[in-house]
Amino acid sequence: MAGNLFGKIAADTLGISDIGKIISPKDFDKVDGDDYIMHEDGEKIFFVIKSKTDEYVFTNQGLLHVDGTSAISKKRTVVRHEFCYERVSNVTLETAGTIDADVEIKFSFGERSFSIDVDKRQLEELKDLYKTLVEISRMQKSNYRLLEDGTNGLKMANDAISRCHIDGSNISTIAHDLTNFNLDWMEALRKTYNKKDFTEVYEKYINN
Questions:
Q1: Is 165 exposed, middle or buried (0-12, 13-18, 19+ CB in 10 A)?
Q2: Which of 43, 63, 81, 82 lies at a C-alpha separation of 20 to 30 Å from 90?
Q3: pLDDT band at 122 (very low <50, low <70, confident <90, very high)
């Protein structure tokens, strides 16, 4: 235990630890992750944490993780997590103790869990990211429930219709109209509650 503690202190002192740094917005275009942002589709970077091996690029549409194998290797794996397909959950922020050099933000994106160490001198900036992720998590949870309620309501309506007597001469037309109605209903629900862009949340909490 003591050996690990002293080793961590030595690594921090020598500058060889993997503690992340929050990148200034003026330098967003210089990070590796910027090359993989869908600028053409309105994707925009709002927050970046960069360590010796990894980059965590938070955008209005999700998270781009540029995963490095080591500080000296140029090999990178780019993994994209998007708000419209995955939910943010379990967001926590761990502040530093007396001798700690870092603070830690943890969260899950879909089935993937992240734990990112950040220079404790940048705690105030990291608090902004924490609040942003918490708010996105809340909105996604609420929207999921509303989407589920809308889907269940549609199912109940279809079940009620299926129990009604329908004239055989009109059954083909009715089936066609009902199918189109169902498709339109589900598309409208997804557009309303399966949110893709959280620009307004970032603008509310970041740099305010």
A1: exposed
A2: 43
A3: very high
Taking the CA atoms of residue 151, residue 86, residue 25 and residue 132 in that order, the dihedral angle to the nearest 10 degrees is 60
What end-to-end distance do the CA atoms of the chain give, in Å? 40
Tally of structural domains, the chain: 1
| Domain that residue 29 falls in | 1-208
DSSP code of residue 168: G
Residue among 82, 46, 66 nearest 195 (CA) = 82
3-state secondary structure of 52: coil
Is residue 73 within 8 Å of residue 27, measured between CB atoms?
no
CATH number at residue 76: 2.30.29.50
Q: Is the dihedral of CA 51, 55, 61, 62 positive or negative?
A: negative
Closest CA to 130 of 42, 201, 45: 201
Region 133-145 average pLDDT: 89
